[in-house]
Automatic annotation (TrEMBL), chain A:
It comes from Methylorubrum rhodesianum. Keywords: Membrane, Transmembrane, Transmembrane helix. The chain crosses the membrane at residues 50-71, 86-107. The keyword Ribonucleoprotein does not apply. This is DUF485 domain-containing protein. PANTHER family: INNER MEMBRANE PROTEIN YJCH. Signal peptide: none annotated.
Length: 126, 561
């Protein structure tokens, strides 16, 4: 089993007391510093935007497919090549598309967002 | 002679009445005792019990019990997630649906899959950064512990209860067919084994049971789909052509059919499948078993690939069933004249047995035994995951935070969790027994709808929207929960088919299209109207939560040592 520790420079930054209840508001300057930090702002802005764009794409593709099933069955029944129908290819496309989207997100998160996070932690440790 | 009720297919797949109203599977002779299957299953059981024993020796703390010490790798976790998701319902139900109506099976396959990207983009990393053991940890991060844990635990237990009943009844019927064992034996065996896995081995044992089962299922399905394609020179086109020639509906199986006739219902089904995934408590718990947000992210990516691959396999298996089984009378109950049979209705064991019969056709009796054992193992692993989620809601959320108000020891909490697992197991056996001859077709669908209408809105709004207050989340979650349950009760599946009223009061089979937006709207409206001082504090506390959810700074580490 792995004994890797996660980086946690602010192990005490948990806002909760020992019984788990909130004990707020108590101004925490460290948190303010992070929230106002330019790298944090860039990270959150970019990632939030990217996540919602991908979410929108997934919703559009899936509900587009369902919409066609509901409203235009004839189109989906169209033969493409021999026996396979357009609907079959679209269904397969939805499955592959879902996987590709998660891949795109993970690739970007592993490079861009993890680098920004690491930079943020480094600059806070200064 | 033991009868198998016509709703087995729908019970497994968690379908809508439109599906439940599908082909009548008819009564089936109890199968001869299937010794190869029983031996292979016994081997699986012994092996997993060995793992449970090892896990029990290594599990001491609450973190071990609920989250396997946070030490599961992304790859292992992705297999466990896929295992939790690839139930016997997906495997037998969807391949059976493809067999009977072709293309329509894809509607379920895609719906079950597309929730995963949403989980990844909006939930997974934030969940790992904010939570410890259950999703209620996350939802109650800056809100009132008591109220939010009550609503989250209620949502969890309702989802677990409906899901468990459907799985237990499905297990009983299936094992009756596959192993030739009486219904009650099957239900008791499943219940007893899931109690042992969860109570002794906690999350570690449950995870490994899930991983092993996922590998067996993926391996078996790959072999079957490969064998089918091999017969057609690895040309899907030839397979489809052969299927179209053999199937009584001909060309129609390549096009959308009658499964979703009503546009509103199909959208509602889609919403329920998609967002229900993001609110299933036993799935959400898996994100706490990995060390950090990066690992959570990667596990969803791998899991999406595995699940998508699996659904493509079930599609091939369904078509393989059409092409290879439909012309072979030995897989059907023959009519009075001894030669004619209905290619869909008369399949031995019903259309849910397509994958199992196909295993025999492509791999002989030992492969049939293997696939039967895998199907049983699948049910066992899924119910174990559900039991652990239910037990955690009782001990970690209700007992430790609501009744004891945090004044409890870790040891007492874990012990209560083990006791809860035993209790849930016994209740599940009892319910499985009681519901044997009831219509449980709507129950998995209801579980997804409740997850989409109660758990998901509460979780998403508390993480993503600053304005969410305790009152908003509590009332909104409750409204979503009640709306989903009431709409299903008033729908055709329960109001007409179970209670025998003449007409359904709610016209659609799936409530999520209405109940989920209602929950979001209620959370928003009540939070907006909430002028209490507590609400102000909670909105102010969003910043701290936001920093942690976005960066993981301050998150619970991988180990509590």
């Amino acid at each position: 089993m792995s004994t890797r520790q996660t980086a946690r420079p602010f192990a005490t930054a948990d806002a909760r007391t020992s019984n788990g209840a909130l004990d707020m508001p108590e101004p925490d300057h460290r948190l303010d510093r992070i929230a106002e930090h330019p790298i944090f702002k860039t990270l959150v802005h970019e990632r939030t935007r990217f996540s919602w764009i991908l979410t929108g794409l997934m919703l559009f593709v899936y509900f587009g497919f369902i919409g066609l099933i509901a409203f235009d069955k004839a189109l989906l029944a169209t033969k493409v090549g021999g026996t396979a129908s357009l609907g079959f290819y679209m269904g397969m496309f939805v499955i592959v598309f879902a996987f590709l989207l998660t891949g795109i997100y993970v690739a970007r998160a592993n490079t861009r967002y993890d680098r920004l996070s690491a930079e943020l932690v480094r600059s806070l440790a200064k | 002679m033991i009868r198998i009720a016509p709703f087995l297919g729908a019970a497994l797949i968690g379908a809508t009445p439109s599906f439940a109203a599908g082909p009548d599977l008819g009564a089936v002779q109890q199968q001869a005792t299937n010794w190869p299957a029983i031996f292979m299953f016994l081997f699986f059981v012994l092996f997993t019990l060995g793992i449970t024993y090892r896990a029990a020796k290594g599990s001491k703390s609450a973190a071990d019990f609920y989250a396997a010490g946070g030490g599961i790798s992304a790859r292992t976790n992705s297999l466990a997630i896929a295992g939790d998701y690839m139930s016997a319902a997906s495997f037998l139900g969807i391949s059976g649906l493809v067999y009977s109506s072709g293309f329509d099976g894809l509607i379920y396959s895609t719906g079950f899959l597309v929730g995963w990207p949403i989980v990844l983009f909006l939930i997974a990393e934030r969940l790992r950064n904010l939570g410890k053991f259950t999703f209620a940890d996350v939802a109650s991060f800056r809100l009132d512990q008591t109220s939010i844990r009550i609503i989250s635990a209620t949502g969890t237990l309702v989802v677990v209860a409906f899901y468990l009943i459907a799985q237990m009844v499905g297990a009983g019927k299936l094992i009756q067919l596959l192993f030739g064992l009486p219904y009650l034996y099957a239900v008791v065996i499943v219940g007893a084994l899931m109690i042992i896995y969860v109570a002794f081995g906690g999350m570690k044992a449950t995870t490994w049971v899930q991983v092993i089962k996922a590998c067996l299922l993926l391996g078996g399905a790959t072999f079957m789909a490969g064998a089918v394609l091999y017969k057609y020179g690895f040309s899907p086109e030839k397979l489809f052509a052969s299927a179209v020639q053999t199937h009584p509906n001909g060309e129609a199986i390549m096009a959308p059919g009658g499964l979703v006739s009503n546009p509103i219902d199909s959208l509602s089904l889609g919403v329920g499948l998609m967002f229900g995934t993001a609110g299933l408590p036993h799935i959400l718990m898996r994100f706490f078993t990995v060390s950090d947000a990066q690992a959570a992210r990667k596990s969803v990516f791998y899991a999406t690939g595995l699940i998508g691959y699996f659904y493509i396999l079930t599609f091939i298996i369904g078509f393989g069933g059409i092409a290879l089984l439909m012309s072979d009378p030995s897989y059907f109950k023959l009519g009075a004249d001894g030669t004619t049979y209905n290619k869909i209705k008369d399949m031995i064991g019903g259309t849910n047995m397509v994958a199992v019969n196909l295993a025999n056709a492509v791999g002989g009796p030992y492969f049939l035994g293997f696939i039967s054992a895998v199907a049983f193992a699948t049910i066992l692993a899924v119910v174990a995951g559900l039991t652990l989620a239910g037990a955690s809601a009782i001990s970690h959320d209700l007992y430790a935070q609501v009744f004891a108000r945090g004044r409890t020891t870790e040891r007492a909490e874990v012990n209560l969790s083990k006791a809860s697992a035993v209790g849930i197991g016994i209740v599940a056996i009892y319910l499985g027994y009681v519901f044997e001859n009831q219509n449980v077709a709507f129950m998995v669908g209801l579980a997804f709808s409740v997850a989409a209408s109660c758990n998901f809105p509460v979780l998403a709004m508390s993480i993503l929207w600053r304005g969410t207050t305790t009152w908003g989340a509590l009332i909104g979650g409750l409204v979503g929960l009640v709306a989903a349950v009431v709409m299903v009760v008033l729908s055709d599946a329960v109001w007409v088919k179970t209670f025998g009223h003449p007409a359904a009061l709610f016209p659609y089979a799936n409530p999520a299209l209405f109940s989920m937006p209602l929950a979001f709207l209620t959370i928003w409206a009540v939070s907006k109207m909430d002028r209490t001082r507590r609400a102000d504090r909670e909105r102010a506390a969003f910043d701290a939560q936001f920093v942690r959810s976005e960066t993981g700074i301050g998150a619970s580490g991988a180990h509590v040592h």
